[in-house]
Design goal:
The chain has 621 residues and is α+β, with helices and mostly antiparallel strands. The chain has four domains: 114 residues, Immunoglobulin-like (Sandwich), CATH 2.60.40; 129 residues, Immunoglobulin-like (Sandwich), CATH 2.60.40; 178 residues, no CATH class; 127 residues, Glutaredoxin (3-Layer(aba) Sandwich). Helices cover 31% and strands 24% of the residues. A nine-stranded antiparallel beta sheet has the order 1-3-4-9-7-6-10-11-2. Strands 13, 14, 16, 17 and 18 form a five-stranded antiparallel beta sheet that branches. A five-stranded mixed beta sheet has the order 23-22-21-24-25. Strand 10 and strand 11 form a beta hairpin. The longest helix is centred in the first third of the chain and has 22 residues. The radius of gyration is 28 Å and the shape is globular. 32% of the residues are buried.
Length: 621
């Protein structure tokens, strides 16, 4: 009997100790399954005897604010737990950001069950409310593969003996089928791909995500191999390559958000917190699958500052010293990359990307990066970068490397234009012509003489690309002629009055936007339903003004779905309206015109509720 009592006492003591340890359980920087924001990062979760404490770091621009809504709740094991209090922030009140844009505070929740392995942070379910799902409490530091990833992708590709993938000199319609792994309803409805293209710069392709399945499809015309960056809720989720005409399934790992949050924290905390090892996306169906599905290499953290080419640059360097510094550091960087235990494919593509960056640093003269001009000595004169420096750099560059075209190829073109013209070889000369031809083709202004000359080149890709772009542009212009008002001949000073004059006696809302502006597109999407219900009125006119940076093809495809009058103005007209007339701080921006023709800039309308309530009041009969 005594032995049994001793055993029972021992078991009770063990249970008590275990309970004490559980009660004090702490998880540092718990992984988040998915979220619709990186404005807050949960640094620490601690269970006390009576409550669960969340140490939170909030981010925003200096002078802006964040707010913890009173209805915020924690959801664990199907049950809701309310906030009991806070430290460092008042629940329901605005917290202004300090100069570093970073603020730390504690939220005190009702005690979560010790058995729960994860929880959700829910501010609310309205558009824009913060939601963080599947916040881990088991102490995981990373997740190699998401549970919903197809089995065939849950392994490292065997690249032994495989040649480096080739650049695709072709064109066609590419289809990207998106699968968001770890998707939870409400964490994302729309996403986009930023696409690094050859000679066209970075384009954006929107994707509509099914709110139930977390899946969607995007199609776009592609010229040459492109690098695509999935962007969900304005955050990047890795990158992958695709060839024109492919149908590719892309599995986007929403847990990659943890890296984004850690990067943000690193910037304000001196690198104390390393991001977890999580890959952003995998592909199935591309000729580049083996490359895309290799473990991600975080070169941002891999490259020591001591060999970073832009590190150690001084404003008082001579041009020769700057050139020597950049090129020597680049060689050291390449040697370092070659020594890393990563596949050769990854190395070659990254080295090409960094070479493009070297051309950029020389082209823009990066000696001014570290010191603002107002801090320079009054008698300081910078030694100019000369054509000979670009001549030397291009002489040591393998221009037959097609991966130079993959990332920031415009840097190469800009640098080539600054070298001695007679020193340009045939490849560089053709690249410069192709760049200018693409720009003209997107305006529908490429002369047949230039196109015919390009057809004599050894590589037919460039002529075929420009001919196809011009053809599609002219078709788009013809198709959209009925929707686009012809105002190019109107003087900038008279433009705005000309636009609003026919609508005197009505309320007019003028929206300044562009197709490439994600906040603009999101705002238009949010407001569009109101035009059919609360703001349905003949007394309200919607006017949209964009400029020629919106590619005519994309513009023509988008505007039929936006109810209103559309104007695509030229550069002089845009600059007069946005700089001189209204001094816009960015887009989207709004100008409100009342029934008497009086107008004012109303950027408080970026708050959609303010816009709707104001317009409803003004259009009353």
């Amino acid at each position: 009997m005594r032995k049994k009592s001793i055993l029972m006492a021992a078991l009770m003591m063990a249970a008590l100790l275990c309970a004490c340890n559980q009660a004090k359980r702490v998880v540092e920087f718990p992984l988040v399954g998915t979220a619709n924001t990186t404005s807050i990062v949960i640094e620490r979760v601690e269970h006390s005897d009576t409550a669960t404490l969340l140490t939170v770091r909030g981010f925003n621009f200096p002078g802006y604010w964040i707010r913890i809504a009173p209805d915020t709740r924690i959801v664990a094991e199907g049950k809701e737990y309310r906030l009991k209090g806070s430290k460092g922030i008042a629940i329901g009140e605005r917290l202004s950001m300090p100069e570093d844009g970073d603020s730390c505070f504690t939220l005190i929740s009702e005690l979560l069950p010790m058995s729960c392995q994860s929880f959700d942070y829910i501010e609310g379910y309205a558009e824009g409310d913060w939601r963080l799902y599947d916040i881990d409490l088991t102490g995981k530091t990373g997740e190699e593969y998401p549970a919903s990833l197809p089995r065939g992708l849950k392994k490292i590709p065997n690249t032994d003996g495989l040649p480096t993938p080739q650049y695709a000199y072709s064109m066609g319609e590419t289809t990207i089928n998106v699968h968001l792994t770890g998707y939870r309803k409400g964490c994302c409805e729309d996403m986009l791909f930023a696409v690094n293209t050859t000679f066209e710069g970075q384009q954006q392709v929107a994707v509509k995500i099914d709110s139930l399945t977390g899946e969607g499809t995007a199609k776009f015309i592609q010229y040459g191999t492109c690098e695509l960056f999935p962007i969900v809720n304005s955050n990047g989720y890795g990158e992958f390559l695709a060839a024109p005409g492919e149908t590719v399934d892309v599995y986007v790992n929403l847990a990659y958000l943890n890296r984004t949050a850690r990067f943000q924290y690193r910037e304000v905390s001196d690198g104390k917190v390393m991001p977890p090892s999580i890959k952003g996306c995998w592909t199935k169906g591309s000729v580049y699958d083996a490359l895309n599905n290799l473990p991600s290499v975080d070169w941002f953290y891999c490259i020591p500052d001591s060999i970073e080419p832009t590190s150690g640059i001084r404003y008082d360097m001579t041009a020769d010293e700057l050139y020597t510094h950049l090129t020597d550091r680049y060689q050291v960087l390449c040697k370092y990359i070659d020594e890393q235990e990563v596949p050769d494919w990854s190395k070659e593509i990254y080295k090409a990307s960094r070479l493009n960056n070297l051309f950029y640093c020389l082209s823009v003269d990066c000696r001014g990066f570290e010191m603002r001009d107002e801090k320079l000595p009054t008698d300081y004169k910078r030694d100019p970068i000369l054509p000979k420096h670009f001549d030397q750099l291009f002489a040591n560059t393998d221009l037959d490397n097609p991966w130079l075209l993959l990332d920031k190829s415009n840097f190469l073109m800009e640098a080539a234009m600054k070298m001695t013209p007679e020193k340009r070889n045939e490849t560089l000369s053709q690249w410069i012509v192709a760049l200018e031809a693409v720009q003209k083709a997107y305006r529908g202004e490429l002369p047949d003489s230039v196109l015919n000359s390009m057809r004599s080149w050894k590589n037919p890709f460039y002529a075929n690309m420009c001919a196809d772009i011009q053809k599609r542009t002219l078709e788009a212009i013809e198709k959209s002629a009925k929707d686009i008002e012809n105002i190019e001949d109107i003087a900038p000073e008279a433009l705005f009055q000309t636009i609003i004059a026919p609508h005197k006696g009505k309320v007019v809302l003028v929206d300044f936007w562009n197709t490439w502006c994600a906040p603009c597109r999101n705002a238009i999407k949010a407001i569009e339903p109101y035009k059919s219900n609360q703001l349905a009125s003949d007394n309200l006119v919607w006017i949209y003004i964009a400029n020629e940076t919106s590619p005519i093809n994309t513009y023509a495809e988008m505007i039929p779905g936006i109810k209103g009058l559309h104007y695509r103005v030229n550069d002089a007209q845009w600059r007069y309206l946005t700089d001189k007339m209204f001094d816009l701080d960015g887009i989207p921006s709004y100008v409100l015109v009342d029934k008497d023709g009086n107008y004012s800039l109303r950027n408080d309308f970026r708050d959609h509720s303010k816009m709707v309530s104001t317009l409803k009041e003004m259009i009353k009969d």
